[in-house]
């Protein structure tokens, strides 16, 4: 019975349309990623390779690769006896992660600013305009990530950019659930406008300093979240639901 419930749950969340073989890994990864980010797959849910392979009518290989990609993006983590499970919204080491992000994103910004084009500046500005009017918190996290990645996009170190994007993916998920609670939306846009203005002027050191200040606001928000909502960090879903879904 529990297995049947789990299969039904996954079918409702992910559908069961069989993707073309050459696109299977990408399609499965994107379906899982979207469901994790918008909360349809809550933290603690076990994602077993065979269950997903059966659901999508594919071999385990594309499923395995999709799960590896999501683990690399910090959306999944591997647990003993359960395999890949949806990661918590935020971990206790989040402040350390933000400290690392400041280092990585500062370097990406430093490399990118001298190479930014007028089109890059215009694109980043368009994300700010969308953020000013967007009320769907599931979209605000995505727009925030796209704004930052546009500013970093001209960095020559592609491996650095990959690490930066992984950090932003993790933040995107947190923002989707907690931006309204934190009340940082409008304040965030003031920071973004200042960052863009400095970057457009080519003021590298000033922009990097402003970025660190901006990200440190995130550290403050994370600490507030961890102090005021500790139960949700450890148990984002009810215990009974997690037991059922883990089967």
Architecture blueprint of SSEs:
Layout: H1 2-14, H2 24-37, H3 49-56, H4 60-72, E1 76-79, E2 83-86, H5 94-112, H6 118-133, H7 137-152, H8 158-182, H9 185-200, H10 204-228, H11 230-234, H12 239-245
Antiparallel strand pairs: 1-2
Helix pairs in contact: 2-4, 3-4, 5-8, 5-10, 6-7, 6-9, 7-8, 9-10
Question: How would you describe the overall organization of this protein?
Answer:
This protein has 247 residues and is mainly alpha-helical. The protein has two domains: 2-87, Arc Repressor Mutant, subunit A; 94-230, Four Helix Bundle (Hemerythrin (Met), subunit A). It contains twelve helices and two strands; from the N terminus they run H-H-H-H-E-E-H-H-H-H-H-H-H-H. The chain has a two-stranded antiparallel sheet with strand order 1-2. The radius of gyration is 19 Å and the shape is elongated. Mean pLDDT is 84; it is low at 230-247. Pfam families: FCD, GntR.
Q: Which descriptors would you attach to this protein?
A:
disordered C terminus; mainly alpha; 247 residues; 3% strand; two-stranded antiparallel sheet; Four Helix Bundle (Hemerythrin (Met), subunit A); Arc Repressor Mutant, subunit A
Q: What's this model, at a glance?
A:
The chain is mainly alpha-helical. The protein has two domains: 2-87, Orthogonal Bundle (Arc Repressor Mutant, subunit A); 94-230, GntR ligand-binding domain-like (Four Helix Bundle (Hemerythrin (Met), subunit A), Up-down Bundle), CATH 1.20.120.530.
